[in-house]
Prior knowledge:
The mean pLDDT is 88. By secondary structure, this protein is an alpha/beta fold. Helices cover 35% and strands 23% of the residues.
Amino acid sequence: MFPKLVxxxxxxxxxxxxxxxxxxxxxxxxxxxxxxxxxxxxxxxxIGRTEIAGLIGPNGAGKTTVFNLxxxxxxxxxxxxLLDGVDTHSMNTMQVNRAGIARTFQNxxxxxxxxxxxxxxxxxxxxxxxxxxxxxxxxxxYWREEKIAHERALELLSIFxxxxxxxxxxxxxxxxxxxxxxxxxxxxxxxxxLLLDEPAAGMNPAETSELMENIRKxxxxxxxxxxxxxxxxxxxxxxxxxxxxxNFGRIIAKGxxxxxxxxxxxxxxxxxxxxxx
Length: 277
């Protein structure tokens, strides 16, 4: 049973449990133009601090472009992005990540020649507290931080029961395990908002079911918000609390899964206008 969505002062809706907290993300009139083409236009979205939200729409609707705007891969042409109340307009991709947004990609981007554990530890660089010389000379401070990072990596890998794979090369993992590792690596940056770009792509039904359970587990364990792009409607309708539907770069509907499933504009976007008899 999904929690009730309730209004907040910005005329948006968040889960009832988040209504007494400021939203983790607010997008206001967000847009980007490429050579005269409006790829995303007037995009407004508010996400509660522990909400699992979905961004859906047909292929080419602009969903990944929105993710690229949120992470500053693209600079918005107009509009505002507030992350935990802070305007990100002057931030670059690294600064946005350190401010609290982590993401996975539609096409997996792991360091294939590194071990599973090292892929996770790479994302912890901002929390490592030893100097360059301590690392070069292998001083006690280096080993102390390495021990902390090792334990943290195994703890995160245990979410997906992957701790026994810590020493395996990432490139040798099965496809589904690589997908899971990418999520673990994103979590290693300690985000407050996790963006998942088609996390179930290439997974079989059993893996997708396990993924749904683990997304809820991540939200509950870390008390973070999650925004996902996904074409698997079974996953979306069973896990997302609020949904935003894009078509040709514009929002055509927002609401609960039940409201979205019954929305005529959404049905038309996915299935096309039905011809009259």
